[in-house]
Amino acid sequence: MNNRKLTKIFIANRGEIAYRIIRTASRLGISTVLPVVPEEKDTLPARAADEIHVLENSILDETYLNGKVMIELALKYGADAIHPGYGFLSENAEFARLAENAGLIWIGPPPDAMALMGNKLSARKVAQKAGIPVPKGISGTKQEILKNHDSLRFPLLIKATAGGGGKGMKIAHNSEQLETMLDDAAREAKNYFGDQTIYVEEYIDNPRHIEVQIFGDQYGNVVHLFERECSIQRRFQKIVEESPSAFVDDNLRDKLSSQAVKLAQQINYCNAGTVEFLVDSNKQHYFLEMNTRLQVEHPVTEAITGIDLVEEQIKTAMGLPLSFIQEDVKAHGHAIEARIYAEDALNNFRPSPGKINFVKWPSPQMARTDSFFDSSVEIPSFFDPLLAKITVWGFNRKEAIEKLSLSLEQTSVIGITTGLPWLRKLTKTEAFVTGNTTTHFTTTYQDLLHKAIQPNGLKKTELLLAAFAVWIIHYRNENNDNNIWNKLGHKRWGNNFEVTLAHKTYTVKIKDGVYPHSLKWCLDNNIMDDIHNITFSSHNLRFYFREQWAQLTWYYTHRNELLLEVDGHTYRLFPGFRLNNITNSNQKNTEKSNIIKAPIPGKISKILVKKGELVNESSPLMILEAMKMENTLQAKARGMVKEVRISEGEQVKAGQILAEIDDKT
């Protein structure tokens, strides 16, 4: 086969994956073109790309999900190739064909292979031919599935026939749930993939999610790059990935790897791909799906093999053979990746768009950080909530976990709620430390992790005020300019001061500690407590208090506002030492129970009630789509729907009134 020259790549994507592709392309001497929405003109990928095209708006159907627009832009800027990244159109075979028909190099697998494996039904047939067991299942219209599902045993896993990434997936435990969820799954599938065909199969209870990274070239060579375990998930989307799996032994590893390679060979697969499996407690494995693209979690494989997967993607797309054979691929050490999402773990992982004022990533010597920003940025509601991926490598799993834990402690995001506190506590759970994780991890340990990231009552208040007290002492000693204290209304420099939090004023007292780098602290004339091992670095302090490590990060905005982040929550400091939590969406709700407001900005994808309808407490009222997730808004009390103020498809703002319930009915 002839090699094709490649000098400029058009990246039909955004965010951290766009920046990841740009870095490798630049190292290879290949220029890049990036389409960006107006809100992301100053992000890392936009600054790093050789050329950018500012899109007219942020409507996905008119931008990243519009293949015709993407190809027209690639041709306009003289690109030789298109790299689709992951998500959006990355697994759309028709988009790949359009690109190739336009004379562009498609940096991905052949369109025919994409179409074959992108369809759940044909993918199952390919897997069976490769000798991979598959769960029993059926497909068809809603009516056909409801008519024929008696041949299957509950629970049933509902999937979108096209696409992946957990979109459209539901678990039905009975016929009633199945009927409702088929509609929901079809709607999500149509929204995300343009195809509402649904497939239903028997659900493998409490499995491990294991995937094998494979790579092929145009000369028939296919190799595997070992497995990744991705069992820790929420909403069928991965949160933590690692390699090697603590669960997979050599026998199972050889079986999964050889079957993944055989599957790829029989469809003449080329470029990067991932064959995914579910493995039960008896180590019986079943085919799940094949992702015909680069995975979000590819840095895990890069960390243990030393192979740049994006570089191999580019070179194989140019017609070059793989730069390695199977015997060359060695796994060294252990790697773990944690995804940081803009979401609230205390509210069913609800998306959390908004303004990030300050960010601090872990030391590059400790971890690899893949993100798309390094300073203040607005996180919009119309994209996936992924903010960053933190990947660590250790000589063994124990060392990797220790590095991950420390890296997450070093990370701070000020301004919005993120999954950071949840991830920090996750690394300390016995199940994670021992490798005893399944796809039920987040539900099994939900209460434990929720309690850990939001201690109740005074304990949480004491942690915050202790951190604030240490910060005050440090700032007072390190700065001669007292203007900040004048602005904040702090009138004297004694060791007693008052702080107002949640409309309550506390008196804090501080004394010198017995040991270096320590203080004695008490609240409202209670017993003195010790604060030990106080250390400071840029924007950050860390200390030991009440048998736990704690930290505070601070940042001054361009308007001279002081923001403090403690345990995943951001507080704004006002004059008179008033602290206001600007991220805590779990604080007591003082809204009237009959008023339904949008908790976050987004689009109303479906209205489930109408005026005059009687609803009960927790009855679903409407579905709000934000950051590629569906969020069901529920009634707060029993009553009659008095008014619905919005319509389906309408974009709404956070705090906007959506409906009113007459709770006196």
From TrEMBL:
Source species taxonomy: Bacteria, Pseudomonadati, Bacteroidota, Bacteroidia, Marinilabiliales
Necessary cofactors: biotin
SUPFAM superfamilies cross-referenced by the UniProt entry: Glutathione synthetase ATP-binding domain-like, PreATP-grasp domain, Rudiment single hybrid motif, Single hybrid motif
Sorted UniProt keywords: ATP-binding, Biotin, Ligase, Nucleotide-binding
Protein name: 3-methylcrotonyl-CoA carboxylase alpha subunit/geranyl-CoA carboxylase alpha subunit
Gene3D superfamilies linked to this entry: 2.40.50.100, ATP-grasp fold, B domain
Record domain Biotin carboxylation: where: 5-447
Keyword Phosphoprotein tagged: no
Entry-linked CDD domains: biotinyl_domain
Domain ATP-grasp: 124-318
Organism annotation: Thermophagus xiamenensis
PROSITE patterns reported for this sequence: ATP_GRASP (PS50975), BC (PS50979), BIOTINYL_LIPOYL (PS50968), CPSASE_1 (PS00866), CPSASE_2 (PS00867)
